[in-house]
Amino acid sequence: MRGGDARNWDEEGYRTSVIEEREALTLTVFRTAFAPSPNPNPNPDIIVAACSDGSVAPFSISSFISSYPSSLKSNDHHQHLLDNQVADPLYSLQGHQGPAYDVKFYGDGENALLLSCGDDGRILAWSWKEILNSVMPSDGKGNYFDPVFYLVNPQHKGPWGALSPIPETNAISTDVQGGRIFAATGDSCAYSWDVETGKCTMEFRGHSDYLHCIAARCSSNQIITGSEDGTGRIWDCRSGKCTRVLNPTKDMTEGKGQKHAYRWVSCVAVDASETWLACGSGSSLSLWSLPTYDCIWSYETQFPIQDALFDKNQILAVGAEPVLTRFNIDGKVLSQIQCAPQSAFSVSLHPTGEIVVIRLHPSVLLYLVESVSQHA
């Protein structure tokens, strides 16, 4: 039996490979976003994931589906299209020091900017056109692109001029027409950034704990934030003032004798008409009328809601249970289907309305929307 040449042993390389393998096994995807398609193809083929290792990873949907057995695709049309297939990203942008928590696209078409934020308190903006037109190395890894620009959360001054740590950015939202990026951060504040100048133009202060989520209501020049303090707040972007405080579970917890029950607002989503607000708070999902600020209904779930979105007049929600739930606008559960992740942090809807993506690593989970709506 012949052994290897110990003189060529790379101890540091071996240690690095072990760490990378362990990180891959525990990698978490916190957010996903479909990429805009270059004309004339109107259907996005790439979805981008914000990952716990600080990377921003694009995946090709068509490449993955084409590798799946055609017989299974046809037979399982009314089941989930893809379940436990492992997909590798096209490449991996190593953008953040610490986890990347959110990813969004600013603008449409090939001139769009890919935005990401994370634990390091930075918002990075890459040229999506440059990424699409670049030839990536065979391993698909590395920091081969410089951001077009980056934004860093402000630090607050303490006694004797000491500066606070840079707070993390947990979520971002955009207002393309107004040229703004909004950030929900770990210092209990939200910030508005001017894309052209790169300057922070507004600070929204009023929450008593860190922010989980943020959504822009551009038609009314407002943003909506959700916090660990258990409230949602609606803010006027012209003045920076809070115009309304929403307490999604106040009546519910007090009515059940759980006045001190711990609740947090984990996700907020605004529909296309910007009339309705879906709010995940603790183990409940509620719907609010934005013109009147009334809570229309609140539905108690068996698990914490971690993400929600509107699909026309319906709502898709996921959370700390392997279930994708569809609600109608009246709060009735239309369907629930099982999914592989025991806890799903993100749900994204393909613009064509055909595919739902729940999580990308270690499995890519693609579901036909038709099967989601029909499966009981």
From TrEMBL:
UniProt protein name: Uncharacterized protein
Repeat region (WD), residues: 93-127, 204-245
Keyword ATP-binding tagged: no
SUPFAM superfamilies assigned: WD40 repeat-like (SSF50978)
Gene Ontology CC: THO complex; transcription export complex
Entry's Gene Ontology BP terms: mRNA export from nucleus
InterPro entries, per database record: THOC6, WD40/YVTN_repeat-like_dom_sf, WD40_repeat_dom_sf, WD40_rpt
Similarity comment: family membership: Belongs to the WD repeat THOC6 family.
Keywords: WD repeat
